[in-house]
Amino acid sequence: METSTLSETATQTTSHAISGSEAVIKCLLAEGVTTLYGYPGGAIMPVYDALFHYHDKLHHVLTRHEQGATHAAQGYARISGKVGVAMATSGPGATNLVTGLADAYIDSTPLVCITGQVGSHLLGSDAFQETDIIGISTPVTKWNHQITDAKEIPEVFAKAFYIARSGRPGPVLIDITKDAQFDTFDFEYKACKHIRSYNPVPKCDTEAIQAAATLINSAKKPLVVWGQGVILGQAEAIFQEVIEKAGLPAAWTILGASAIPTDHPLNVGMVGMHGNYAPNKLTNECDVLIAIGMRFDDRVTGNLETYAKQAKVIHFEIDPAEIHKNVYADVPVLGDAKSSLEALLPLLNPKAHSQWLQLFRELYQLEHDTIIQTDLFPSKEGLTMGEVIQQINEVSGGEAAIVSDVGQHQMVACRYAKFIHSKSNITSGGLGTMGFALPAAIGAKMAAPQREVVAIIGDGGYQMTIQELGTIFQTQTAVKIVVLNNEFLGMVRQWQQLFFDKRYAATEMTNPNFVTIAQGYHIPAQRVTERATLSEAVQTMMQHEGPYFLEVCVEREDNVFPMIPTGASVSDIRLS
Amino acid sequence: MTTTTQRYTVSIYTENNVGLLNRISAIFQRRHINIDSINSSISEIEGVSRWTIVVEVSEAQIRKIIGQIERQVEVIRAHYFTDDETIYQESGLFKVASELLFEERQIQNIIKESHARIVTVNRNFFVLEKSGRKEEVERLYEQLKPFGIMQFVRSGRIAVTKEPIQITSLLAAFNEQ
Asked: How far from A552 is each of A462, A527, B44, CA to CA, in Å?
């Protein structure tokens, strides 16, 4: 009897024993991963070898640089709400992930990044392509872990996915030594549902919600500023109900854009440095400021000493570390946006705040007449960035997801793009990573193939990850790439003009022929230099089935306004 | 909230995992804050580590730092305390030439008055151990210095709080989830 039990166990062991590498693939499949982005190399080769046998279940996209893999995974995550996955080898492969990790960390994007590592017997020996990626990635990851024993793989992967997507999402990095990839063990996968030291979603505080409701009900001039928390918390619908019931003008941070439609009557525009005039100006006139899923970034608040000092502040927030971090909250409401707003809704009195809203409309009109009209429908000769966005709006009707890079074009895209659906504005907000958009658009299009995905990129940022055209060509991902070319690092040039007496140090760019480059990758391409051909070119691009490249040569020295100069108050926002 | 700085003792209960030192010290480093002393040990709860970190910062800063420490996945709880809220000790070791013990009468008096303990004596040197507040250890250092100290080292602060910290019940609640 004893003998037979032993042999049974032995058979079971052999039948379930798999390599660490295969276990990695099985973990990804168990977590519902269908697409991952990466770049092979020595220390991750066993995992790639295992992947070879699973290519029908797991689609690996070979980017042209590991940074591209992380941004593609970010685009994938941002449009779908799923965890994005990127993989790289040790050493330079791993360090190339760092910018993407930092970007995902500051913008709360769920990522799981996998890196190969030298064999555990070589750790610390300066082996070929060895780098301390755990040490390097610690400040820019929500969690990271090095696996030196294959047996750890299922538990660590389960934890990684749970941590990446739960609570305030973020990037996680798993580093796996080569020996742990080769070793075999009995594989069994259990999803992680709980970690004792980790409390991802603080309990809804009913007293705080009551206090918030009382303040909102008594407010004469309430203002909502919402951020990405509304989108990450899948709270868009209840959020809209809340503002509609209480008649709350609502403004968005750059990452909050698209949570409610652009043309919603209570949507009063974008806050922050290049946001709209009314919500910035009136931040310093509201009596109750209701912050929802946002973190009072300095680009949003301007000078904190003069930010909304007259207002009582209510802060709905999932991350306790954000409470009182930058702005003191009279009523902090911990919890995820959806459950908090659901609890808040029945406590609110129906209101319209018509007079107060009228003020927003008047200030909008002022901004419209001085800036928006000439941005979108210019009468001068040179093309503006705004009119390109306007043309895209007209063709897409607001259906497109806009992936923007970083700089002037980003501000213009976020200000003027029309959105109907949530998760439609994908941009690098907190970190401001030039080079983000092209690879992020690839990930976004792959995660939502039914959606039109338009990347809006400047000529500077485009050249930081231009190699990802190769990925687009190879995968035939139907992204629409629009480069707004002003032959300048435009935002820096704008600051040089305004604050450094026009000393244009290192901002002028001599650019290559972008159309020829796109054509080199067999991507149909067109250049527009005149208004007369813009509309047709945008239509051609949008109607084209595959990937398409459109370069628009815009006015070289246009500036983005309104603008809150660094260190100034939100109410000192400049129209020119 | 005041911006004047003062000494705070930070107590952190964490899982016992590789890499946490880096993760926690990075939170101070990114704010350009120098850590005065740091200590890690087991705690009263099995498998849970306890960190004691001493820094000089403002209360506004320490509150934000605590929030960012608690945000780390493997941190169970972090608190900050002023000196009067804790019972704290540090330990100093002094290595002194043995001949002084026999030739300098005053040395014996210093040892007696300071309540320092002789850990070991051999032909060449003896080792004194003095536990207490930082100032007490420093006073002994100043007293011995004129005679010559071969080696001196002081540990980081360790501290327990006067008020209870409800970690065990907190962990129980976590485990129930």
From this structure: 13, 6, 66
Q: What is the span of the domain harbouring residue A152? A: 14-186
The boundaries of the domain holding residue B25 are: 5-81
Same-domain check for residues B17 and B76: yes
Q: Are residues A419 and A515 in the same domain?
A: yes
pLDDT at B166: 77
Residue with tokens 């909230």: B1
Q: Give the pLDDT score at B171.
A: 72
pLDDT band for position B177 (cuts 50, 70, 90)? low
Partner-chain contact B74 A163, CB within 8 Å? no
Question: Closest Cα partner for A566 from A556, A557, A555, A574?
Answer: A574
Catalytic annotation, pick one of A22, A31, A66, A152: A66
Question: Rounded to whole angstroms, how far apart are CA atoms A569 and A565?
Answer: 8
When pLDDT is averaged across residues B93-98 and rounded to a whole number, the result is 96
Residue at B143 is within a domain: yes
What integer pLDDT is reported at residue B167 of this predicted model? 74
B74/B97 same-domain check? no
- Count the domains in chain B: 2
Size of chain A, expressed as the number of residues it contains: 576
pLDDT of residue B102: 85
How many Cβ atoms sit within 10 Å of the Cβ of residue A32?
9
Q: Which CATH number characterizes residue B68's domain? A: 3.30.70.260
Residue B161 lies in a domain: no
The residue in chain A having the minimum alpha-carbon distance to the alpha carbon of residue B173 is A196
Instruction: Based on the fold, state whether residues B53 and B106 are members of the same structural domain.
Output: no
Please list every residue in chain B whose beta carbon sits closer than 8 Å to the beta carbon of residue A132.
none
Q: What's the number of domains chain A is made of?
A: 3
Determine the distance from the C-alpha atom of residue A314 to the mean position of all C-alpha atoms in its chain, rounded to a whole number. 25
Positions of chain A with pLDDT under 70:
1-15
Cα radius of gyration rounded to whole Å, chain A: 25
| Cα B167 from Cα B176, distance rounded (Å) | 14
Query: Which has more pLDDT, B105 or A60?
Result: A60
What is the token pair recorded at A392?
Answer: 């895209």
What is each CA distance from B44 to B51, B54, B89, in whole angstroms?
A: 12, 20, 18
Quote the pLDDT of residue A204: 87
Query: Which residues from chain A sit within 8 angstroms of residue B15, using beta carbons?
Result: 197
The number of residues making up chain B comes to 177
Q: At what angle do helices B59-70 and B20-29 cross, to 10 degrees?
A: 150
Q: Which H/E stretch holds residue A22? A: helix A20-30
Domain CATH number, residue B91: 3.30.70.1150
d(CA A255, CA A263): 17
Look at residue A398 and tell me if it is in a domain. yes
CB-nearest to B70 from A142, A144, A321 is A321
CATH number at residue A546: 3.40.50.970
| Kind plus residue range of the DSSP H or E element containing A174 | strand A171-177
Q: Is residue A570 situated within a structural domain?
A: no
Under the banding of pLDDT at 50, 70 and 90, the label for residue B104 is: confident
Share above pLDDT 70 across residues of chain B, in percent, rounded to a whole number = 95
Catalytic pick from A82, A178, A221, A423? A178
Structure tokens at B38: 């740091």
Domain boundary among A157, A186, A215: A186
